[in-house]
Known about the structure:
It is a single chain. By secondary structure, this protein is of the alpha/beta class. About 45% of the residues lie in helices and about 25% in strands. Strands 3-4-6-5 form a 4-stranded mixed beta sheet. It has a two-stranded parallel sheet with strand order 1-2. α4 (about 110-125) crosses α5. The two termini are about 20 Å apart. The mean pLDDT is about 95.
Amino acid sequence: MGCGAGNYTLKLLEHLPGLDATLIDLSQPMLDRARERVTAAGARTVECLQGDVRELHLGEGRFDVIMAAAVLHHLRTDEEWKATFAALHRALKPGGSFWVADLVTHNAPGIQEVMWQRYGEYLVSLKGEDYRDHVFAYVEYEDTPRPLLFQIDLLREVGFRKVDVLHKNGPFAAFGAIK
C-alpha cells in the first residue's frame, strides 16, 4: 500500500519471484508505472487499486504479505489508525504478515526533540536549511505520525500475535507483525 513506483514490491520479487501483487496508491500515474515495472520484473499477476487505504475494501484472508512504505504517517486520528490496522489484519491470511517502514514520533518530549533535531541536521546536510524548513512544514501540515510503541501496541490490540521491530534510526522505523 502506498506503492508509489513499486520499489518495495520489486525488492520483494527479488526474493519471491513469480508472486501475485496487488498495488495500492492514490496516484494512477504511479500505479501505472508500478504495474509496468512489477510486471517486467516477473510478477505472475498484478492488480492495481487506486484509492485511499482507509476507504478501500481489501477483503478477508486475501493476502500473504502486506507492506506499507511511508504511508501510515498520513493517518489522522487514533480511530483511523485502529480501523486501518484492523482492516489490514482482516485482509491477511492466517500466518500472513504486515511490514511497515515509516516516520515515527516518540512519547518522551525530550527524545522527540533530539530525534527531530538530528533529522533536521540530516536534511540540512542534504539540501540546506530551506529544505529542512520545507520538510518540517510539510510534516506539520500534512502528516500525523505516531510513536513506534503506539503502533506496536495497536498491532497487538487488533489481533496480531507476533510483533517485532526490525530497525529504528532516529524518526524512522521498520517493523512488522504476523497474524
